[in-house]
Backbone:
């Protein structure tokens, strides 16, 4: 029931949801409570051991770009993984991975070989220039939407962690990062995909609802929908897909995400949250030219959902079975 690439680089259509869901039920008062889901688990916030880039691969080549944000406050390391296998006639599908350091750390040579045995995409890991999986200050700014009145959003527990820079990051992505990452590569520009987890998942949905022409296929894992009073849910109510080309979304979330972060929650359950996620996907699925579905990541907590959702995403795109 997933979205797969076939031999000519086109995609099979997502299966439709079995039950109807009303987007009107996804109002702030009807949603789950604020939790600490957007916090990376502590074990992920450690220096990275050597990974696929440092060790090298028999089936992928790598190139790295470094650049700073226009205000000089955030420093990016963009790692482009390029299949050694010849591209399809239409070009490689480019898959953009938010939290690129953590995303690459979740993959190994066996995953790359599995994709090489099918239709390998170009992986574009949008990371930060640090030896850790996450730059928690930078990602909170880059991946979170601003308030309508433009004021930055401050984390009371950690004032350094400001939010509200997602639109600036979308502009940087569109104007600079994508062109640099795809330079001189045979890319299928009609099949661009974006994956993100937690705040990254929130960014995926915000970009989808406000700049839908930027990508064609959208993968949002454990998105932090409660951010800024469920702002992204209001954006979903206004979303229309540009019907000049087909698009798709896959929403994913674990069924044990609140167990770890229970002390930060004031009610609700994983089942209730996932039912609402499913409703959102079903409502999006009704839009002309757009298909969406929701996938429960069984047994997964919030941190574990990162790697699992990434592998599901790459399986969808390449047609390979990644475990």
Residues:
């Amino acid at each position: 029931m997933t979205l797969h690439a076939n031999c000519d680089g086109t995609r099979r259509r997502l299966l439709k949801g079995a039950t109807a869901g009303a987007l009107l039920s996804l109002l702030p008062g009807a949603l789950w409570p604020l939790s600490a889901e957007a916090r990376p688990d502590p074990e992920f916030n450690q220096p990275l051991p050597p990974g696929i880039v440092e060790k090298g691969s028999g089936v992928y080549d790598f190139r790295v770009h470094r650049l700073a944000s226009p205000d000089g406050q955030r420093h990016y390391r963009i790692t482009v993984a390029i299949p050694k296998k010849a591209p399809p006639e239409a070009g490689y599908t480019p898959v953009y991975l938010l939290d690129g350091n953590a995303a690459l750390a979740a993959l190994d040579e066996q995953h790359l070989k599995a994709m090489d045995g099918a239709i390998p995409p170009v992986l574009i890991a949008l990371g930060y220039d640090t030896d850790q999986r996450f730059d928690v200050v930078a990602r909170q700014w880059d991946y979170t939407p601003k308030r309508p009145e433009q004021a930055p959003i401050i984390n009371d527990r950690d004032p350094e962690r400001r939010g509200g820079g997602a639109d600036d990051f979308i502009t940087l992505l569109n104007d600079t990062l994508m062109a640099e990452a795809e330079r001189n590569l045979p890319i299928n520009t009609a099949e661009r995909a974006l994956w993100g987890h937690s705040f990254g998942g929130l960014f995926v949905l915000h970009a989808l609802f406000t700049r839908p022409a930027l990508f064609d296929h959208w993968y949002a894992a454990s998105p932090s929908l409660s951010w800024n009073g469920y702002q992204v849910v209001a954006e979903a109510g206004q979303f229309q897909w540009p019907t000049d080309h087909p698009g798709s979304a896959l929403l994913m979330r674990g069924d044990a995400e609140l167990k770890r972060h229970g002390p930060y929650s004031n009610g609700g359950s994983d089942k209730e949250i996932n039912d609402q996620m499913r409703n959102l996907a079903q409502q999006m699925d009704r839009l002309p030219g757009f298909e969406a579905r929701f996938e429960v990541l069984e047994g997964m907590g919030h941190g574990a959902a990162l790697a699992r959702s990434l592998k599901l995403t790459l399986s969808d795109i390449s047609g390979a079975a990644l475990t």
About this structure: Residues 1-38, 261-267 have pLDDT under 50 and may be disordered. The beta strands are 60-68, 75-83, 94-97, 122-128, 153-154, 162-163, 193-197, 217-221, 247-254, 290-297. The longest strand covers residues 60-68. The chain has ten helices and ten strands.
